[in-house]
Structures are given as structure tokens and as C-alpha cells.
Amino acid sequence: MPFEQLVKELQPDRSLAHNPLFQVMFVLQSEELPPLATSGAEVEHFRVGNTMANFDLTLDIVERDGQLVCLFESNADLFEADSIVRMMGHFQNLVAGLVRKSGRENFPSAAPEPGRTPPVAD
Questions:
Q1: What is the distance between the alpha carbons of residues 104 and 106, in angstroms, rounded to a whole number?
Q2: Where do the structural domains in the chain lie, given as residue ranges?
Q3: Are 59 and 91 in contact (CB under 8 A)?
Q4: Which of 34, 50, 51, 68 has its CA 20 to 30 A from that of 79?
């Protein structure tokens, strides 16, 4: 059934307060951002801190220097900071179990983004 027909038949309540298709996002990037090439200017990548979560919950993972750098971002109206810290611990246990099960010693380890406290966006 086409999506448009499904929406027409169901007539769901619509709200601009949340994404209509999904509220949780998982991002896995396995490569570094390439250096920016410019002539005569010094340029570097940096993360812009969000003051508002785009989704109810986002887990952003980047493989960097043999580690998985993880960033949890959440809607503060839905998740307490302690809940995110527990989620981070559960995820770290999951990755540790995968490493043990794989038998590989050089499997990337999960690490929180350096210098960041558990992010909780409004």
C-alpha cells in the first residue's frame, strides 16, 4: 500500500512537535572526516553542541583511532540524565560482550566522546 494512501486511510493526528516517521536515530560512521583542503586558510572540523534534540533519542557512533566514540543525545522532557547514563553502561556492556564473543583483541572499544558529560538536550 502506498504511504500516501496509508496516511489518508488512517488519518493520524499530526503534530510539529515530533518527527512523523521515527523518534529514535542510530548513526554509525566508520570513517574519519577527510581534512578540508583550502588555499591559505586553516580549517578544522568541530562538533556544534545542540541545545535541542532533533529526535527523542539519538546514538551517534564514530570509529576513531581504534575506538568507537559514542554520543547519546536525548530529549530532556522524556529522559533523565541518569537514564542516559544507564543506557550508556548497557551499551558498553553490549559492546564488551561482542568483543569477548568475537575473540578479537583489536575490536574497537566503546568510549564516550572525550570531555563530554552525558548530553541531555531540551
A1: 6
A2: 56-122
A3: yes
A4: 68
